[in-house]
User: Fold this.
Amino acid sequence: MAIPRILVVDDDVEMRRMMTQFLQQNGSIALPAGSGAEVMRHLDGGRIDLILLDVMLGDESGLEICATLRRDQDVPVIMISALSADHQRMAGYEVGADDYIAKPFNPQLLLARVKAVLSRARRSSSLVHRRKTKVFGFNGWTYDAKRDEVLSPAGVQVALSRRETALLQALLANPFIPLTREEIAAALDVDGTGGDDATGRAIDVLVGRLRGKIEANPKAPRMLRTERGVGYVFAVDVSARDA
Assistant:
C-alpha cells in the first residue's frame, strides 16, 4: 500500500510546520502549502491523497478553494477551522468537504479522522473499479455487475432497486469489514452528511429492505449483520471474476 501523500494548507507557518511534522512522524508524506496557488501547483506536480485545508487563509477562503477543487478534482478534503458553529460546518460540507475539524484539536483525533477519510476514499476507489467489471459470488448468490443482475442460489433473478443494488455493491467490495453508516452513505452518494440522523435512519431502512431480499430469515440475518456500535458488516466470503 502506498504511503499517503497529504497536503497541509495553512497560512500560519508554525501550525503548518507542526501538522506536517506530526503527520510525517505517523507514517505519511506531508507537504506544506500556504495558498490556493500552492495547492494547485502540488496537484499538478504529483499524487495527492488528502488535503487538510484551513478555512481562513489570509485574504483567501478555504471554502472557495474547496469549491474550486470540486469542479474537477475528487481528492478528499478535511476542512480545519477555529469556526465551529453548525452553520459554519455545514458551509464546509456544502462545498464538498469530506470532514470538518474545529481548532484547537487533539492531534490524535486529527490522525484518526485522516485515517478514516483515507480509508473511505480507498474503498470508494476500489468499489468504482470493481462494480462495473466483475461477477461476484457470495453464499450461493451471484451478482453480475456488467448485466446488473442478481441471481439467488436457486437461479432465480431477484429484482433490486437502484439503492439496494448500490448497497449490495458496497458490501461486496468490503466483505468482513465493518462499515459505518457514514461510509455506506458516502458509497451510495446520499445527500447530506453521513452523521445526520435522518441519513442514518435511511441507511437502516435500506439495509432492512436488502435483507428482506437476500436473507433466508431477515430477522436473524446471517450475511448482512449488524455490527454493534459501528454499523453493518457483510459476514460472508465473496469471490470475484471478470465479467
User: Anything to note?
Assistant: The domain at 134-242 is CATH 1.10.10.10 (Arc Repressor Mutant, subunit A).
